[in-house]
Amino acid sequence: MGNRILKESICLDRKIDQLTDFQETLFYRLIVKVDDYGVFLADPAVLASTLYPRKRNLSLKGIGEALKRMESLGLVRLYTCGGEEYLQIVSWEKNQRMRASVHKYPMPEQGESASGDGNAPDSAEGDPAAEVPESAEERPAEVSLSAAEPAQARELPVVELPLNDNSAWGVTSADIAEYTALYPAVDVMQELRNMRGWCMANPEKRKTRTGIRRFIARWLSREQDRNGAAFRRGPGENPFISMAADGSAGEGGPPDSFERMVFGGGSGA
């Protein structure tokens, strides 16, 4: 994520002033962790490990209560999507340029609001979310979306691979179609399930967000090489007939190995 700059008005913000010290620091840490759309996972266990990596024995109940307090004040909105809990900082898009063209996490309109109404209070005034840097060097590049891109951006992942920061890399149906074309001898969907199982069983070996694509490509490439011979032979071709054809080119008929495989013995009467 890019560097975020807090507005000076945060010191006078009435909503922030109603948070406890712990709730306020949690909110500030969220600002530097959410994606370019102000969205992040809202599972207290995930927040404890990602926002406070050097602290131990944090109260998960306290984190959950802090999120509900922020939601009641209109600072965040909570929602669920695909059984996962998410949060979005309210009015984020009014204070931050959207640099990424694809959503990292599902957006609120794709899920259900934790409060049940699907809409949290939204206020553009006094919002403490990050402000766009003013210098040319720090200012992120603007992204222009075509008419076709928003639908692509909202595509939900079919399989999610756990990463080393306890977030997940989503593989969409479009990704699966591309991998299937690149690796025709591989059952891509099953191999993605295998990758997810491997990541869950080996948390200390999980990949980074920048390295996960390379991990997927190497895994599928290995499976393509392993299954390539059978794929090239084709499902209807009998390997024994191929062996017989190769051996009958000489004067002695089928090779001994083929004869033993088919007839179960030597060539003698």
What this model shows, in words?
There is one protein chain. The protein is of the alpha+beta class and 269 residues long. Among the domains are: 8-119, Arc Repressor Mutant, subunit A, CATH 1.10.10.10; 159-233, no CATH class. Helix content is 39%, strand content 9%. It has 10 helices and 6 strands; from the N terminus they run ααβααβββαββααααα. The chain has helices spanning 14-17, 21-31, 44-51, 60-72, 149-153, 173-182, 188-201, 212-233, 239-247, 256-263; strands at residues 39-41, 76-81, 84-89, 112-113, 159-162, 168-171. The strands form 2 sheets. The chain has a 4-stranded antiparallel beta sheet with strand order 1-3-2-4, with helices on one face. Strand 2 (76-81) and strand 3 (84-89) form a beta hairpin. Helix 2 (21-31) packs across helix 4 (60-72) and helix 3 crosses helix 4 (60-72). It is elongated. The N and C termini lie far apart (79 Å). The model is unreliable at 117-153 and 248-255 (pLDDT under 50).
